[in-house]
């Protein structure tokens, strides 16, 4: 919303009191807390205290109070006395807040209580009266005991827990059958021990859609045999039948995320994100029998970041042909993304690879286990590929013939790969012309050894190209891009092309185009 529109809307609405992000140091004066207020937002200010001498604001119909991102350390016991209609209370990101008034227990109409990132908070009043709560977030706090009455919050759909100890988690969670989002995150500076057995709980949480673990240092495996499930254990029908998203970060002792035998319970899984797990070696365990295929039929997004021991994305036995996006960052041991025996990814649309210091191949002809005459079906849907900071990578496409199977490509961005010599390598049996009919944007940045986009015998036809950008590629000479209008000796530039950006300026003069008049025709777009 435009600032002026927003300001006008707030001025003409007597039921809103909004003073957010204006460096406010004190609460509004008593007369500003009108009896008819419905919503109050004082977030992102510098409020340090709520004076004990301040009378409780008489706001009996107030439903929303947002005090997040301030510097509040204490809240007077009587502050909420006349706010019994509150449904949403957000006190998150008050890092100095160390205790809460017990009067919060009387806010029986609360549906949302947010205390995340109140790092000094060590205890929470009894919650047994707040049976209407649907969202409770205590993550990134210093609580040492679970709140009293947590097991009575049977309407909870979102639960975030932080602190140091989780050993009493089993019993209260068993009653939270409506839970959809579970976040368990310890303080990042404390080596929290996981002492609970989750097996008894998972079968109860059949509505669970999102599961997140953070900084649980001694967690060996999220779904697996080690410390969590015995070989003979079986789970109730419907376990994880709704689970869609899994995120794990800062669990430094975990070595693999899934045991293969768990995949049958994860058939609705759509997103997997794993960050900063220093000992993780496998996403999917490779203990399946030879020839046995396992599947994640709905997996769409896979994001991996800062996993220094990870060597492969998944084993050759895994089928996840619904995957649309793969993003991999800071995984220094990965040498090849797609290798011999991998299963097709016909719906993959986005591939992002960054800071893979030992990556030597992305699309390797040998990786497909196919000859050029037997086309793979793996990448027909790929629209965008981004590669950055992969210092050992000398080429993106190992063979020009592979581009025949990337006909949906719209964007190629390659940057800061110090050893990159060629975007597309070639072999003797290849045809001279390679077509990327949907390519709209080609961007090459800081590739000091790049000499050509493809070999001297090849031409890249891209009739839909709109943007061509070349930054700091000092050795790039030949531009083997073929435009139909240039071939027909027309005097105008290709109709799709909108811009050409070259830096530094003198690089333009050193570029060699196959068509003799290309520079003159394209110069107006430079």
Automatic annotation (TrEMBL):
Q: Which InterPro entries match?
A: At4g27190-like_LRR, Leu-rich_rpt, Leu-rich_rpt_typical-subtyp, LRR_dom_sf, Plant_NBS-LRR
Keywords of the record, alphabetical order, are: Leucine-rich repeat, Plant defense, Repeat
Q: Where is the Disease resistance protein At4g27190-like leucine-rich repeats domain?
A: 234-354, 374-479
Name under which the protein is recorded: Disease resistance protein At4g27190-like leucine-rich repeats domain-containing protein
| Phylogenetic placement of the source organism | Eukaryota, Viridiplantae, Streptophyta, Embryophyta, Tracheophyta
């Amino acid at each position: 919303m435009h600032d002026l529109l927003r300001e006008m809307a707030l001025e003409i609405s007597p039921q809103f009191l909004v003073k957010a992000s204006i460096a406010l140091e004190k609460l509004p004066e008593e007369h500003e807390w009108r009896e008819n207020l419905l919503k109050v937002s004082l977030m992102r200010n510098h409020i340090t205290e709520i004076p004990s001498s301040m009378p409780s604001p008489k706001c009996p119909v107030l439903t929303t109070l947002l005090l997040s991102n301030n510097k509040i350390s204490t809240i007077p016991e009587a502050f909420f006395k006349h706010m019994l209609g509150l449904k949403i209370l957000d006190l998150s990101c008050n890092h100095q807040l160390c205790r809460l008034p017990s009067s919060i227990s009387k806010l029986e109409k609360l549906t949302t209580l947010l205390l995340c990132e109140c790092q000094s908070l060590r205890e929470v009043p009894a919650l047994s009266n707040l049976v209407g709560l649907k969202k409770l977030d205590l993550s990134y706090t210093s609580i040492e005991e679970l709140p009293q009455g947590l097991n009575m919050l049977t309407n909870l759909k979102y639960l975030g827990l932080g602190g140091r100890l989780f050993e009493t988690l089993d019993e209260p969670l068993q009653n939270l059958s409506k839970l959809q989002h579970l976040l368990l995150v310890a303080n990042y500076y404390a080596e929290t021990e996981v002492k609970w057995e989750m097996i008894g709980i998972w079968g109860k949480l059949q509505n669970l859609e999102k599961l997140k673990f953070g900084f649980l240092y001694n967690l060996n495996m999220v779904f697996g045999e080690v410390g969590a499930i015995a070989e003979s254990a079986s789970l109730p029908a419907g376990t994880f039948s709704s689970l869609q998203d899994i995120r794990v970060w800062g669990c430094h002792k975990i070595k693999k995320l899934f045991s293969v035998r768990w995949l049958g319970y994860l058939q609705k899984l759509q997103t997997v994100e794993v960050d900063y797990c220093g000992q993780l070696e496998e996403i999917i365990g490779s203990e399946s029998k030879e020839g046995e295929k396992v599947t994640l039929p709905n997996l769409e997004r896979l994001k991996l970041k800062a996993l220094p021991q990870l060597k492969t994305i998944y084993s050759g036995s895994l089928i996840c042909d619904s995957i649309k996006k793969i993003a991999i960052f800071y995984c220094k041991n990965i040498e090849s993304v797609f290798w011999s025996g991998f299963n097709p990814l016909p719906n993959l649309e986005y591939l992002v690879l960054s800071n893979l210091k030992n990556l030597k191949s992305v699309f390797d002809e040998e990786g497909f286990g196919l000859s050029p005459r037997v086309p793979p079906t793996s990448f027909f849907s790929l629209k965008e590929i981004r590669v950055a900071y992969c210092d050992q990578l000398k080429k993106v496409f190992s063979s020009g013939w592979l581009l025949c199977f990337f006909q949906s490509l719209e964007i190629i961005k390659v940057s800061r790969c110090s050893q990159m010599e060629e975007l597309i390598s070639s072999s003797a049996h290849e045809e001279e012309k390679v077509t990327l009919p949907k390519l709209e944007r080609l961007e090459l940045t800081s590739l000091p050894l790049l000499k050509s986009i493809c070999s001297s015998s090849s031409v890249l036809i891209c009739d839909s190209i709109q943007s061509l950008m070349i930054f700091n590629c000092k050795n790039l000479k030949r531009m083997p891009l073929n435009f139909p209008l240039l071939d027909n000796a027309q005097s105008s530039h290709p109709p799709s092309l909108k811009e050409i950006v070259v830096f530094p300026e003198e690089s333009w003069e050193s570029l060699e185009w196959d068509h003799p008049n290309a520079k003159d025709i394209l110069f107006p777009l430079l």
